[in-house]
Automatic annotation (TrEMBL):
UniProt gene name: lgt
Lineage, top ranks: Bacteria, Pseudomonadati, Pseudomonadota, Alphaproteobacteria, Hyphomicrobiales
The protein, known as: Phosphatidylglycerol--prolipoprotein diacylglyceryl transferase
Protein family per UniProt: Belongs to the Lgt family.
Annotated organism of origin: Bradyrhizobium sacchari
UniProt-annotated location(s): Cell membrane
GO molecular function, one term: phosphatidylglycerol-prolipoprotein diacylglyceryl transferase activity
Length: 281
């Protein structure tokens, strides 16, 4: 029954505009995600009880790391989109690679960029790679939540067509088919943002940071699961469509995450929590 469809909110693409200066919603999501994630990371590092002793890095080091991880997200995310989602187009139009304001970022590429940033920064500063990975992934769902909300505001990456009787089905203004669709961006915001953040926060409260690699592995595993679930409601990228066996590129890239995440969790459990340093008598 079409009259049950929800009208898509008429959002402006620009969030903040002061004279010639303009910030789009997607850029604002990245900025706020990084700032809120940084503040949350600092709050976790201040609580020694969560680590079973002194935190594995200082507040100054996490401040310095923000630049590194920001570059990892942007460079990795863009590179991943170019390679995984639209390589033929960018081969024909190489200048378009640098037009970030037109959209086109890949989570999986951004994640790999963060992995490189974590490994390089940890090596240069004598920090545990696993512990730095734990703190990075503990705050990552904040950015994922805001990014998916920005996707919804932009009316992009919409869901698959659905029955018009679905109470929350929407017709997205930029959709050439004008079919009622799942607002899959909000599904993903709930799973990749709220659910994942809550799960990791509960684990942290019960001592997961005392086992290096536990939060990192849990993030990778849970994200992989939620992304695969979300892909069942999300319309595949037009230039790719469905792959062999009905898989999408998002599903294909998430399958290895399940394996890697599970391995990291098993290793963290076997490794156990580090023993507290006893005072010299």
């Amino acid at each position: 029954m079409p009259f049950l469809l929800i009208d898509f909110p008429a959002f402006k693409p620009i969030a903040i505009e002061i004279g010639p200066f303009a910030i789009r919603w997607y850029a604002l999501a990245y900025i706020c995600g990084i700032v809120f994630g940084w503040l949350y990371a600092r709050s976790l590092l201040r609580k020694e009880r969560l680590w079973g002793g002194p935190a594995p890095m200082s507040l100054v080091q996490i401040d310095d790391f923000i630049l590194w991880v920001t570059l990892g997200i942007i460079l990795g995310g863009r590179t991943g989109y170019v390679l995984f989602y639209n390589l033929p187009f960018f081969i024909d139009h190489p200048a378009a690679i640098f037009r970030l304001w037109e959209g086109g970022m890949s989570f999986h590429g951004g994640f790999l960029g963060c992995v490189v940033a974590v490994m390089w920064f940890a090596y240069r500063n004598g920090i545990s790679i696993l512990s730095l990975g734990d703190i990075t992934t503990a705050v990552a769902p904040v950015g994922l939540l805001l990014g998916r909300i920005a996707n919804f505001i932009n009316g992009e990456l919409w869901g698959r067509a659905t029955d018009p009787s679905l109470p929350w089905a929407m017709i997205f203004p930029n959709d050439p088919t004008q079919l009622p669709r799942h607002p899959s961006q909000l599904y993903e915001a709930g799973m990749e943002g709220i659910l994942l953040f809550s799960a990791l926060a509960i684990m942290i409260r019960f001592g997961a940071l005392k086992r290096p690699g536990m939060i990192l592995g849990s993030f990778i595993l849970i994200y992989g699961l939620t992304r695969i679930i979300g892909e069942h409601f999300r319309e595949p990228d037009a230039q790719l469509g469905y792959l062999r066996g009905g898989l999408t590129m998002g599903m294909l890239l998430s399958i290895p995450m399940l394996i890697v995440g599970l391995i990291l969790i098993v290793l963290a459990v076997r490794r156990g929590a580090p023993k507290p340093i006893e005072a010299v008598r």
